[in-house]
Write a structure and sequence with these properties.
Number of helices: 10
CATH topology of the largest domain: Alkaline Phosphatase, subunit A
Radius of gyration: 22 Å
CATH superfamily of the largest domain: Alkaline Phosphatase, subunit A
Largest sheet: 11 strands, mixed
CATH class of the largest domain: Alpha Beta
Strand content: 15-25%
Shape: globular
Strand order of the largest sheet: 6-8-7-5-4-9-1-10-11-2-12
Number of domains: 2
């Protein structure tokens, strides 16, 4: 090849868009982390230097919403790109539940596998613990983690690995009937490999599993969904982090999540994958409303929640503190550095975003509610929220700066804490948003897909004494 041809080829290669190489995707999701509980979101006591650095090198989203204010529906929305009410309307699942995310749904993992991605789910699943609902039946090549919340129990009918590690006096015989709150199993694919899992080590072990997967699959595109078990109560941290933060175990667990995120980003840099990997850090919903000031009293109780300031409300609520969560996205060379996005976006938008950056085709046989965020990620001039309206399940709606909830109207641009009801001053806005909410409910009634395992059986009424 002569010099002129070489220089021309080099010039053409340099001009190719960054999306020419199929990008990797890593979604890191904390469990019940409050809006304020990152340094880059204003935490005065919790130190998160690695995620803060991601924000400096990437983009911070201040008006980002989870799919629900509790675990299971939030995860269903993220993975399917749909409102949780559309994909089975699942509530929080427990070990005695026979239901889960319908295997006929298309997850981000299944979407990306059409483009040759290796896929892994590492962490808390909580979309059904029976085989037909587990990650390996929902597009993931591998699964390693706890199948539901860490404050639950064991389903003794789940299959056990031949080499299962039994702890805390549990035996092969006693495990068949063993059910004790806060003692949960660790799974590999579809089998329990440890019971009860040592919760102090979960964050560290999830991190090691993620780094191993990245290293093994560095030569091809990969997708890692890493939903951490922490800081859901009971809160745990490894010995290296316990007692490290200024606010007790809750802060310790967040600081370990920050360390974990730093380990992952450092691995990407070391393997020269950072400029071809989108990394997202977010939370599944807001924090528990517990004793947020217990750290000031020297309390080391594991039942401690986080901080949603300056938002109002907590987990379980449709107020901002229940569903607006701290979110940072990082993709060196693709996402401009040190940017803040105040547009209204949601976790269900990850589905369409992954489709666009990977070249995968969106399904055409079903409603997909999420929209691509690529224009916002690239900070394109004039890029706006892809949503004319965003719904908090079926109880509230946000359109632009306005939010309507239970007949109350708030201007979130000037009243982020939802303190001043403006419904009487702006009846026209109330009418418009009420119509949007009514239309959304009608759409869901006409276009809702069933959960896996059928509808929830009604609970038998308790006998009145």
């Amino acid at each position: 090849m002569n010099l002129s041809i070489f220089l021309l080829a080099l010039s053409m290669a340099a001009s190719l868009p960054l999306s020419a190489a199929t990008p990797n995707v890593i979604i890191i999701m904390a469990d019940d982390q409050g809006y304020q509980d990152l340094g880059c979101f204003g935490s005065p006591k919790i130190k998160t230097p690695h995620i803060d650095q991601m924000a400096k090198e990437g983009m911070r989203f201040t008006d980002f919403y989870s799919g629900a204010s509790v675990c299971t529906p939030s995860r269903a929305a993220l993975l399917t790109g749909c409102y949780a009410s559309r994909v089975g309307n699942l509530g929080v699942l427990f070990p005695q539940d026979a239901r889960g995310l319908n295997p006929t749904e298309i997850t981000i993992a299944e979407l990306l596998k059409t483009k040759g991605y290796a896929t892994a789910c590492i962490g808390k699943w909580h979309l059904g613990h029976h085989k037909q609902f587990l990650p390996t039946s929902q597009g993931f090549d591998t699964y390693y983690g706890v199948p539901y919340s860490n404050d639950m129990t064991l389903d003794p009918t789940q299959p056990l690995a031949n080499d299962i590690a039994l702890r805390e006096g549990v035996t092969a015989e006693s495990i068949k009937t063993h059910q004790k709150k806060n003692l949960v199993p660790l799974m590999r694919d579809t089998e329990i490999i440890e019971y009860p899992v040592d919760q102090n080590t979960l964050t560290k072990r999830y991190t090691e599993e993620a780094i191993k997967f990245i290293t093994t699959n560095k030569e091809k595109p990969f997708f890692i969904y890493l939903p951490h078990s922490m800081p859901h109560i009971p809160v745990y941290a490894s010995p290296e982090f316990e007692g490290k933060s200024e606010i007790g175990l809750y802060g310790d667990s967040i600081e370990e999540l920050d360390w974990s995120t730093g380990q992952i980003s450092e691995t990407l840099r070391k393997l020269k994958l950072d400029q071809n990997t989108l990394v997202i850090y977010t939370s599944d919903n807001g924090p528990w409303k517990l004793d947020q000031n217990s750290w000031e009293k020297g309390n080391t109780n594991r039942q401690v929640g986080g901080f949603a300031h300056p938002l109002r409300g907590y987990k379980f609520s449709r107020l901002e503190g229940g569903m607006r969560v701290p979110t940072v996205m990082w993709w060196p060379g693709r996402i401009p550095a040190d940017k803040t996005c105040g547009e209204v976006v949601a976790s269900m938008d990850f589905f369409a975003t992954c489709a666009e950056i990977s070249g995968a085709e969106l399904p055409t046989d079903r409603v997909i509610d999420g929209k691509s965020l690529v224009a916002l990620l690239e900070a394109k001039e004039g890029a706006k929220s892809p949503h004319d309206a965003l719904f908090y399940r079926t109880e509230a709606v946000r359109s632009g700066k306005w939010k309507l909830i239970k007949g109350q109207l708030y201007d979130l641009e000037v009243d982020i804490g939802e303190a001043t009801n403006l419904a009487e001053k702006h009846p026209d806005v109330v009418t418009r948003l009420s119509a949007l909410l009514a239309a959304h409910k009608k759409d869901l009634a006409e276009n809702t897909r069933p959960p896996g395992g059928g509808q929830k059986k009604p609970r038998k009424p308790k006998n009145k004494k």
